[in-house]
Every structure is written in structure tokens, then in C-alpha cells.
Amino acid sequence: MKRLHIKWAFVIAWMIMIFVLSHQPATISDGNSQFIIKIFKTLGINLDSAFGDLANFAVRKSAHFLEYLIFSLLIYNASRETYSISKSIFLAVGLVFFYACTDEIHQLFVKGRSGRFRDVMIDTSGGATAMLSVCLLSFTKAASLLKKNSN
């Protein structure tokens, strides 16, 4: 039971982190994206030359995708303590979609930010990608066990 509470605490902590990041005004959010672009440049990867004016946009949307991919994995991990694989997958994607919707509504009230359904779809795609990976790993593991047991 304690393990279950800890797993859900990680989910809630991640939700709080998403909320805090979404509550930043556009100028701060843009500054964070520029900081990431500079880090990549230091590593020898020039996103500005690869994406041009779209570098900032690409970094922001990639961040959306990744934060919700991780969110989905955290939900899946916590819900597996109680539910089957398939129910946990549907729960994870459903909660990701719902929270992405509320996140975009929240951004309507933040200076310089806007709520866009496109971002909901990017966020949900991150969660769905994580759950597709879980499905593929589960099927691969099951096939491996079947093959092992048939020999």
C-alpha cells in the first residue's frame, strides 16, 4: 500500500511541475527555450541552423511531448498496482488528454500564453507514444515467454 501511495505521489508531483511550468509568462517560457537551445549549441548541435526561426517552437513542442510522455509512464506505473495492462494504458492516455485540456485552459489566464488544441494533441501524442511503447514491450515479452515455454 505504501508503494502505491509513493507511485501516485510521483504522478501528483509531475502534475504540479507541469502546472508551474504552464503558469510562467510567455517571456520566461521563451527564455527557458533559448537556454535549451544554447545548451545544445554548447554540445555542438546548432538547432538554429537546423530549424532556423522554428528552433524555439521545436524546443517548446518537444518539451510538451516529453513532459506528457513521462506523465503517462508515471500514471501507468502507479495504476498497474491496481489495474490490468490494458486498463492502465487507457487510464494513462485518458488522464493525459484530460490534464492536457485543463493545462491549455489554464494557459488562457497566463500573461502572453494561449490555449491551443494543437498543444493538447502534442501532449496526448507524447502519452500515447509512451503507451504504444509499453504495448510493444508487453507483446514482445509475452511472445518471448510463449516461445520459451513451447521449446
Task: Give a structural overview.
This protein has 151 residues and is an all-alpha fold. Helix content is 83%, strand content 0%. It contains 6 helices and no strands. Helix 1 (2-22) runs antiparallel to helix 4, helix 2 (26-42) packs across helix 4 (55-79) and helix 4 crosses helix 5 (85-107). It is globular.
Short characterization:
Helices cover 83% and strands 0% of the residues. By secondary structure, the protein is mostly helical.
Largest β-sheet summary: none
How far apart the termini lie comes to 38 Å
Average pLDDT, all residues? 93
Strand content: under 5%
Summarize the helix and strand pattern as letters.
Answer: HHHHHH
- Uncertain runs with pLDDT below 50, 5 residues or more? none
Instruction: Provide the structure class.
Output: mainly alpha
Number of strands: 0
Helix share, percent: over 70%
Radius of gyration: 18 Å
Q: Could you say how many structural domains there are in total? A: 1
Tell me which oligomeric state these chains represent.
single chain
**Count of alpha/pi helices:** 6
Overall, the morphology is globular
Helix-strand blueprint:
Blueprint: H1 2-22, H2 26-42, H3 47-51, H4 55-79, H5 85-107, H6 117-150
Helix pairs in contact: 1-4, 1-5, 2-4, 4-5, 4-6, 5-6
